[in-house]
Amino acid sequence: MTKQELNRDIKRLWVRYENKDSELDVYEALEEMRQELKRLYYADDDFEYMNLRSIKIMIRLNLSLRVVPLHQFGLGIEL
Fold first, then answer.
1. Model confidence over 9-26: pLDDT tens digits?
2. Contact 48/37 with Cβ under 8 angstroms?
3. Are 67 and 37 in contact (CB under 8 A)?
């Protein structure tokens, strides 16, 4: 997965999360979003290739969906 694909997929997940209320089965949609967030997080768990907006989106989504425990989220980030 390239940097562009990673950031694009994160933005798509964010748009889908914002529009989740329009879906018929919200619980199934949230479970799919959790799986997608986990896939995207572990694709770059050091936040090396994500841009600033994607990092903010990942933090916000993880606070809502609680996919990765908060005490482990982003431990490998280089400042």
1. 999 999 999 998 887 788
2. no
3. yes
Contact partners, residue 51, CB within 8 Å, separation at least 6: 7
Q: CA–CA separation, 51 vs 65, rounded Å?
A: 21
DSSP 19-60: TGGGSS-HHHHHHHHHHHHHHHHHHSTT-SS--HHHHHHHHH
Backbone angles phi, psi at 8, to 5 degrees: -65, -45
Where are the chain's structural domains? Answer: 3-65
Cα separation of the two ends of the chain: 23
Q: What is the DSSP secondary structure assignment for residue 68, as one 8-state letter?
A: S
Q: Could you tell me which residues come within 8 angstroms of residue 7 by beta carbon, excluding any fewer than 6 positions away?
A: 49, 50, 51, 53, 54
Question: What average pLDDT does the segment 35-62 reach?
Answer: 95
